Amino acid sequence: MKLSKDFYLEEFVSSPTATRHNIDNEPSPSVIEELTKLCVEIMQPIRNYFERAVIISSGYRCLELNTLIGGSKTSQHMKGQAADFHINTISTATIVDACIKLSLPYHQLINEFGRWVHISKCHQGSEPGKQVMTAVKQDGKTVYKRGQYA
Ligand SMILES: [Zn+2]
């Protein structure tokens, strides 16, 4: 099922972890609706800007999957409102820069360890949070710092 010009539902739902643990990560119609908005408003503009494949490492996560991988209890991944992704040969800092420059309606934009980018769309009816963060490891623990290149 196509969500936007270059994105398919499957990319946001398939999870090797879910498969391995026999978790049914099937999205509800409302989750599919949110994923579609995420693609149209955010992911497709990123794809168009770089003109390169955007590789989704994590999109929708049902509660069971989110809990298993240690996701935040309020993770927008559970609502189909967030995606983790990378683009080959483009640094995560460059991607974060572009998302800001393009004025995408993101709620949170996180450079995760320089390895992938987490982006979420704003909640229904709310203004985009436009929160930019950088995740780093300090003494083996994940620390979220405000801003870029922290
Ligand atoms: Zn994420």
Task: Outline the structure in words.
Helix content is 32%, strand content 27%. It has a domain of 103 residues: 2-Layer Sandwich (Muramoyl-pentapeptide Carboxypeptidase, domain 2). It has 5 helices and 8 strands. The radius of gyration is 15 Å and the shape is globular. It has 150 residues and is an alpha+beta fold. The strands form 2 sheets. A 6-stranded mixed beta sheet has the order 3-4-6-5-7-8. β1 and β2 form a beta hairpin. The model has no long low-confidence stretch (mean pLDDT 95). Bound molecules: zinc ion (ZN).
Main pleated sheet: 6 strands, mixed
CATH topology of the domain at 2-104: Muramoyl-pentapeptide Carboxypeptidase, domain 2
Mean pLDDT: 95
Give the fraction of residues assigned to helices.
Answer: 25-40%
| Tally of strands | 8
CATH architecture of the domain at 2-104: 2-Layer Sandwich
Residue windows where pLDDT falls under 50 for at least 5 positions: none
Output the structural class: alpha+beta
Concise summary:
This protein has 150 residues and is of the alpha+beta class. The protein has 5 helices and 8 strands; from the N terminus they run ββαααβαβαββββ.
List keywords for this structure.
binds zinc ion, alpha+beta, globular, 150 residues, Muramoyl-pentapeptide Carboxypeptidase, domain 2, six-stranded mixed sheet, single chain, two-stranded antiparallel sheet
List the helices and strands and how they pair.
Layout: E1 2-4, E2 7-8, H1 9-13, H2 16-20, H3 29-50, E3 55-58, H4 63-68, E4 82-86, H5 92-101, E5 106-112, E6 116-121, E7 131-138, E8 141-146
Parallel strand pairs: 5-7
Antiparallel strand pairs: 1-2, 3-4, 4-6, 5-6, 7-8
The chain binds zinc ion (ZN).
The site of zinc ion has 5 residues, from strand 4.
